[in-house]
Amino acid sequence: DNRTVVAASCAAVTSVFCGFPFDSVKTRMQTHNYRSLTDCVRKTYRVEGVRGFFRAGIAPPLLTVSVLRATSFSVYERAKSSLYRLHGSSDVTLLSLGAIAFVAGGASGTAVAALSCPFELVKIQRQLQVLVWERQQRLVDPRSQPTWASVKEIVRLRGPLGLFYGLQSHLVRDLAGTGTYFAGYECIKRVLASIEGGNGRTSSGVHFLAGGLAGVFCWMLTFPLDLVKSLIQKDVTAVARHAPNGWQVARDIVRRSGFRGLYTGISVTLIRAFPIHALNFTVYEYVTERIQLFATPSNTPTLASMEAD
């Protein structure tokens, strides 16, 4: 559906612009030792300046995230429609809605994982390059290197399949995370809509609050999976090293730092999560509705008005 592609792409552009610096700080805190969020921000700014928060470059994520977000939402909407048809009944309980959204979201996450893995892998390498350069005292300053140089380095060390380093952990995170994300949004939106009342349409305020809460809820549940994935993928350029088992990485974290260690870097993630995901769904729902209104002749009732009737 072209409406889904356009709406999801618009939401992706908004999310990338607002969330990229937070994502960079999150990756640094997950993979290197900082005393606090403030310590990470201060040291990054002192050594690299403002550009340090945009180390991977914002142009590649704008393109790739738009494609991935459009694919994710398209797969989700198609899977959700199919599951609704299988369900049969027009009366969908909140529990059934959550189950349908989780399965459809899981399908979406699974479909997108193989596409997003290389992009996230390169992004992590770019975000951490200056730290690695300083600690290993390499000769070439990575700040002078383009993103393509990171891709070539990974392929040189591990071959083309090296771009999928850590795919298993990536797949687990995306399956669980995307399922939780969409299920949380759909359920919270229904609850808020019932409180709001109205004529069958949900307001932008509902979309904003439901999206923000769903983002926070999703990250609180799946952050350890993202941490393990980041720790695995940061070592892609370590010579002659195979990707470690995710369970082993998690056990090592718990042994060294306790269960709190599984949430290293979550502070900046939660600060980022609410506004980014609130904007994501608000923009997505708004653009979808606008496109539908423009595409529907004025004398033809819209889907929202038919639902209200």
Automatic annotation (TrEMBL):
Q: Name one GO molecular function term.
A: transmembrane transporter activity
Q: Where in the cell is it found?
A: Mitochondrion membrane
Q: Does the keyword Transit peptide apply?
A: no
Output the Gene Ontology cellular-component terms.
mitochondrial membrane
Positions annotated as Solcar repeat: 2-82, 96-191, 202-290
Stated membrane topology is: Multi-pass membrane protein
Q: Which residues cross the membrane?
A: 6-25, 52-72, 92-117
Q: Which InterPro entries match?
A: MCP (IPR002067), MCP_dom_sf (IPR023395), MCP_transmembrane (IPR018108), Mitochondrial_Carrier (IPR050567)
Q: Provide the alphabetized UniProt keywords.
A: Membrane, Mitochondrion, Repeat, Transmembrane, Transmembrane helix, Transport
PROSITE patterns for this protein = SOLCAR
> Which family, according to UniProt?
Belongs to the mitochondrial carrier (TC 2.A.29) family.
Query: Which protein, by its recorded name, is this?
Result: Mitochondrial carrier domain-containing protein
What organism is this sequence from?
Syncephalis pseudoplumigaleata
